[in-house]
Design a protein that fits this description.
- The complex is a heterodimer of chains A (167) and B (978).
- With 167 residues, chain A is of the alpha+beta class.
- Chain A starts with 5 loop residues before the first strand and ends with a helix.
- Chain A has 6 helices and 5 strands.
- By secondary structure, chain B is of the alpha+beta class.
- Chain B folds into 7 domains: 77 residues, no CATH class; 43 residues, no CATH class; 44 residues, no CATH class; 174 residues, no CATH class; 226 residues, no CATH class; 214 residues, Beta Barrel (Elongation Factor Tu (Ef-tu), domain 3), CATH 2.40.30.110; 62 residues, no CATH class.
- Chain B contains 35 helices and 23 strands.
- In chain B, the strands form 4 sheets. Chain B has a 7-stranded antiparallel beta sheet with strand order 6-7-8-5-11-10-9.
- In chain B, helix 26 crosses helix 27.
- Chain B is globular and about 130 Å long.
- The chains are: A alpha+beta (167), B alpha+beta (978).
- Chains A and B meet through strand 2, helix 4, helix 5 and helix 6 of A and helix 1 and helix 4 of B.
- Chain A: It comes from Dicentrarchus labrax.
- Chain A: Keywords: Nucleus, rRNA processing, tRNA processing.
- Chain A: This is Ribonuclease P/MRP protein subunit POP5.
């Protein structure tokens, strides 16, 4: 069917100081991207960036960001992302750069990729553990990474009840 | 998109403080406790306000305080939390969040959301739960189809369904192929589901059409001949043709048909037409048996009437039910001997079946196929006898199966299907001599005289095969016969019965002179009296035959045991002899052309044998017709069809009312803008025929008509006609005595009909000048006046054939042509006829006004004014401005007014249009036999005579016909066929 098509970029915010990552904010990311695009591509880029550009998701703990660009001009906008060197959040300048991990047509594919990627990360961490306690924690988290049956059920019920409220 | 994970970030407001505190005081121990959402969230519900949108409920809440250090554990925890959030987002479907969304696109189907059964089974539960609140409760699950179709259960079900409406024996056969209608307490096939209008007509005129007429009710009368005749003579009149006492019928050689009136009421209060059949006399006995076949509508009235004239009010309780006390039956015997058969039996049977179902043991009797009348309770008396006259009336409804074969080849079909019964083997009989057989045929075989009779009947039947067409026989011929079970000679494939090889032999000259002589005699005299005897008349034989019928299953078993597959069973099983009666059905008897069209045979069988004869008949290539076809049959015959064309009978009136509501409903189903506006077409009553009003108005016109009609602006009739009319009126007035308005009657007096028929014909027509003109009195004033004194309020059954094109429809108007119209006709026969000027619809504006409300009244009145201007020119010729103005002045509640129809009461029906209305058409169609439009209907006798008198000789009998939805008049020739 006919629909508005977009590209979703799954980016990783790399910072030197991890604690600063927690300051991350969707508005801050959006401002940083806009500024970078305006700097690299001028007014034209800034204009493109104002149409349907959106930061869909920010995780301050992991530094994951979903960016939405229009499909028409996502390459142009993407090309400006490496020029981001810092994100200004909460009055602080966080030096960082964005690493694009995945480009997807839907947010779903990005999410799927992120799941795979994160799991991979955890599995990679496991052999590098320094002590027993750490290893135990990571192992537990790896096990946590899947949705339990009961969990799922509960979630569905929840969504249902939500719907009921909406109706 | 819904259900997406929300960004995990710290509120910007709290970051200042939180960031500081976390940096300063936050420990690594805080991490795990903060990330655990389940403990955190309920404790600090107020914190959520600052969050962007709130988390998933279990999706991990994050503390507002920032951890200072990064450890592997925290890192991993954050990752796993995110993975979970993402997983949830991925697994939960997007879009409408309905289960359908979970399906990949290529598996989605239309209407899945409405019918969960269209979903794959794994998703059905969820979908049901989601949609469950809206859906209604599921119906109670019925038994599986297999269980329902099991023989016993099926039979129970059939019996249950037969309780309300009677089923004919061929019901199942018909139900598979016909549109069934519930009529007159029966389930009858109306028309086949396949297209066969023309094939059926061709079958009637060329081969054979079969109908099941078992729904006709048979009433048996037994008693002394003179007493029977004396009582029955009250019901009929000699004036309307031969009665019950006609010599040929009385001998039992012919079937008669007669119009029955209420006792001594002729010519008013007719009941309806019946056919009757006397049983041939037995030697030296004056005890006679008579069958009267009547339509089920009039059965009740007829039975009542018969009981009164025969003084039979003593119901004989059927001996089958000893349980019922006589007290229960006796009270019903008085004035109304037929107790309501619906209520009592129904409840009884219901309780019976319930008991049977509740205790499922084998003690209950196995379900039996209902033969005969399923709706009647066993306690209803079917026999009445009179102590004074000794007459016994027996209600044989559904006791005798009646099939009608119509068409010239009916006898070939019969000859091929039925074979005269073969004798029983003498040796077997000798073996059985000691014990007398329970079957009737072996018993009969022992009797020499009976076998002689059978031989003679078989000979006659054999001769019958040789005739060329069914119509050659004298009408109403009866032949009794005993035949073999026709199932034994069932062909393996459907074949078309052709004229018998006997006829071929005639051409070759093989047949002896004797046969030829016999055939001629048969054609001239019919069957001799003793051959009309049949054992079908005897109750005991009928019951015996019905009870001992070989079941289909048994027959098939016997067939399978035959040595050569497909060969005939021999010897014929002893049970396989059936007494039947063949009754010849006359075809078209009236009129000149197509005489004896649609003749055929009626086949009377004992009950229970219906299907055994039906299927073999069908296998002989006959067409099957329903009720629709019998209507067409009588229409082509030019005969009135009961109850459609009997407006003076109660049944006919009732039928007309039903028809009106039906047509009105159909009319009202259309949106008003798409309806025919009958007011504009000048059609007062498109759905019914106000016969009474018509007759009264014509009476009035004739009595005081002249000046009134002039005043009405009737410029149509020529001036000389007017003067003549005035003369007539004056002469008329002397004679007519003012009498109270009586009910209409249909003219059935044969003498009068013959007179009228002669008058209708143009005297200058060349060629076929009718021979009986010599005895006709000339048509003049005095003759008409004398005729009208006798039949002033009568209607007469006429046939109208159109001269040029046009197809008359139901309730088309029969009108009087004016002198100018006849001039038009003189120019050329191909002239199409005059036009009716369109009428004004005064009601339309009023309906509009009512809808718009009072504020718009002014504009609508204005519009009506303009409307009036438009149609002013024709208003000069508009016959009766007073009448058309009349409803306007009368204030009426117009709530139930239907757009496009005249509201009651109707204005003058005769003079509403520019041509005077004489009557209406009750059956009109393109006649396949005549090749032109052909209509049957009634006209007022008074109007008709008046018209005929005023018409010039060469155009006498020329009338106009106009369909209700048309403005075009067509010329039609009137014919009264006697």
């Amino acid at each position: 069917m006919v629909r508005v098509k977009s590209r979703y970029l799954l980016c990783e915010v790399n910072v030197s100081d991890r604690s600063q990552l927690l300051l991350l904010d969707d508005r801050a990311v959006a401002a940083a991207v806009k500024a970078a695009v305006a700097r690299i591509h001028g007014d034209y880029g800034a204009a493109l960036c104002s149409i349907r550009f959106n930061v869909k998701y920010v995780n301050a703990h992991t530094g994951t960001v979903f960016l939405r660009f229009p499909k028409r001009c996502y390459r142009l906008l993407w090309s400006a992302l490496p020029f981001i060197t810092s994100v200004e959040a909460c009055g602080q300048k966080i030096p960082c750069f964005l690493n694009c991990l995945h480009v997807g047509g839907t947010i779903r594919t990005c999410q799927k990729f992120l799941i795979r990627y994160n799991k991979q990360q955890l599995h990679r961490m496991l052999p590098k553990c320094k002590n027993k306690e750490e290893e135990e924690q990571i192992r537990r988290e790896i096990l946590n990474c899947s949705l339990k049956g009961g969990n799922k059920e509960g979630f569905e019920d929840g969504s249902e009840s939500e719907e009921d409220e909406e109706e | 998109m819904r259900n997406q994970p929300v960004s995990v970030q710290y509120p910007s407001g709290s970051t200042q403080n939180g960031g500081d505190t976390s940096v300063t005081g936050g420990g690594r121990d805080d991490g795990p406790s903060n990330v655990r959402p389940s403990t955190e969230r309920p404790k600090n519900p107020h914190q959520r306000a600052g969050w962007v949108r709130g988390h998933q409920k279990d999706g991990g809440g994050y503390a507002k305080e920032m951890p200072k250090l990064i450890t592997a554990g925290a890192f991993a925890r954050a990752r796993s939390a995110e993975v979970r959030a993402m997983l949830k987002a991925v697994t939960v479907t997007t879009g409408s969040s309905h289960v359908c969304g979970a399906l990949p696109k290529h598996m989605r189907r239309r209407a899945m959301s409405h019918n969960t059964k269209r979903l794959p089974r794994r998703l059905r539960d969820v979908a049901n739960r989601m949609a469950g609140s809206k859906k209604k409760k599921e119906q109670a699950k019925s038994k599986s189809r297999k269980a329902r179709r099991r023989h016993g259960n099926l039979l129970l079900e059939f019996n249950r369904r037969q309780r309300k409406n009677m089923w004919l024996e061929t019901h199942i056969w018909h139900a598979k192929r016909f549109h069934m209608v519930k009529k007159w307490g029966y389930c009858l096939g109306d028309r086949p589901t396949y297209k066969c209008y023309r094939p059926c007509y061709r079958a009637m005129s060329g081969h054979c059409l079969l109908q099941d007429l078992s729904y006709y009710c048979c009433i048996e009368l037994q008693g002394e001949e003179d007493k029977l005749l004396a009582s029955l003579s009250q019901l009929t009149s000699k004036e309307a043709g031969p009665t019950f006492a006609a010599a040929l019928s009385l001998s039992g050689r012919r079937q008669g048909s007669v119009m029955v009136y209420k006792a001594g009421q002729y010519p008013s209060q007719p009941l309806g037409p019946v056919t009757f059949l006397w049983r041939p006399r037995t030697q030296g006995s004056t005890h006679r048996q008579l069958w009267i076949w009547a339509h089920p509508i009039i059965k009740k009235d007829l039975l009542l009437e018969l009981q009164t004239v025969c003084q039979c009010c003593e119901a004989v309780v059927p001996p089958v039910v000893p349980v019922v006390t006589p007290a229960e039956v006796v009270p019903t015997l008085g004035p109304e001997p037929e107790p309501k058969p619906e209520k009592n039996p129904e409840t009884k049977q219901i309780t019976g079946t319930k008991r049977k179902r509740s205790c499922k043991d084998a003690s209950g009797p196995p379900a039996k196929k209902i033969l005969g009348d399923g709706t009647r309770s066993p306690t209803t008396p079917v026999t009445w006898k009179s102590s004074s006259t000794g007459i016994v009336i027996n209600d044989l409804t559904m006791e005798i199966v009646r099939y009608r074969l119509i068409g010239p080849q009916s006898h070939s079909v019969l000859a091929e299907t039925l074979e005269a019964a073969t004798d029983c083997d003498v040796r077997i009989m000798e073996i059985n001599k000691s014990q007398s057989s329970s079957l009737w045929w072996p018993e009969h075989c022992k009797d020499e005289s009976k076998m002689n009779l059978h031989q003679q009947q078989a000979d006659v039947y054999h001769i019958l095969k040789g005739i060329y067409s069914t119509g050659e026989l004298p009408p109403g011929t009866v032949l009794g016969l005993t035949v073999d079970d026709p199932r034994l000679t069932l062909p393996t494939k459907k074949v078309k019965a052709l004229p018998c090889e006997h006829a071929v032999c005639v051409c070759c000259g093989f047949v002896s002179e004797v046969d030829e002589e016999k055939r001629k005699e048969l054609m001239l005299r019919g069957v001799s009296e003793h051959c009309c005897q049949s054992y079908l008349w005897e109750q005991s034989v009928r019951d015996n035959v019905t009870d001992n019928k070989i079941s289909e299953q048994e027959l098939n078993r016997m067939r399978s045991e035959v040595l050569v597959p497909g060969s005939r069973l021999s010897p014929t099983p002893l049970q396989g002899r059936v007494p039947i009666l063949l009754v010849h059905q006359p075809g078209k008897q009236v009129g000149h052309e197509m005489s004896s069209w649609g003749a055929g045979w009626d086949l009377l069988l004992p009950k229970g044998w219906g299907m055994a004869f039906w299927v073999p008949l069908v296998y002989r290539g006959v067409r099957i017709g329903g009720l629709n076809m019998s209507l067409k049959h009588s229409q082509n015959k030019g005969a009135p069809h009961f109850p459609h064309d009997y407006p003076d009978c109660f049944a006919g009136v009732h039928f007309q009312e039903e028809q009106e509501t039906e047509l009105l409903d159909k009319f009202k189903r259309r949106p008003p803008a798409k309806r025919t506006n009958y007011i504009k077409h000048g059609c007062l009553a498109p759905f019914r025929c106000p016969w009474q009003q018509l007759a009264e108005e014509w009476e009035l016109i004739l009595r005081e008509g002249g000046e009134d009609r002039k005043g009405d602006g009737q410029t149509g009739t020529a001036t000389e006609a007017d003067t003549e009319m005035e003369e007539e009126v004056t002469s008329h007035r002397d004679i007519t005595v003012t009498k109270p308005p009586s009910r209409i009657t249909v003219l059935r007096n044969t003498k009068s009909l013959r007179l009228l028929s002669g008058w209708c014909k143009p005297t200058t027509s060349k060629g076929q000048r009718h021979c009986r003109v010599r005895e006709l009195p000339p048509l003049d004033r005095s003759a008409t006046t004398s005729f009208l004194t006798a039949h002033g309020m009568s209607l007469v059954w006429v046939r109208l054939s159109l001269l040029s094109k046009g197809k008359p429809e139901l309730h088309a108007m029969v009108c009087v042509p004016t002198a100018e119209d006849l001039q038009l006709l003189k120019k050329g026969p191909g002239s199409s006829g005059p036009q009716e000027p369109p009428h004004r619809d005064h009601f339309k504006s009023r309906i509009k006004r009512r809808k718009k409300g009072p504020k718009k009244a002014a504009t609508s009145s204005l519009s009506s004014k303009t409307e009036g201007k438009e149609s002013n020119p024709p208003s000069g010729s508009e016959p009766n401005p007073t009448t058309s103005e009349d409803p306007k002045s009368s204030p009426k509640s117009s709530s139930d007014r239907i757009f496009g129809l005249w509201p009651d009461p109707l204005p003058s029906v005769t003079s509403h249009c520019s041509r005077l209305t004489l009557g209406w058409v009750t059956q009109g169609d393109f006649s396949l036999s005549a090749g032109c439009g052909d209509a049957l209907g009634f006209v007022s006798v008074a109007g008709l005579l008046n018209t005929l008198v005023n018409q010039p000789m060469e155009h006498r009998g020329m009338l106009l016909l106009r369909n209700p939805a048309s403005l075009h008049y067509r010329f039609a020739k009137i014919n009264i066929e006697v």
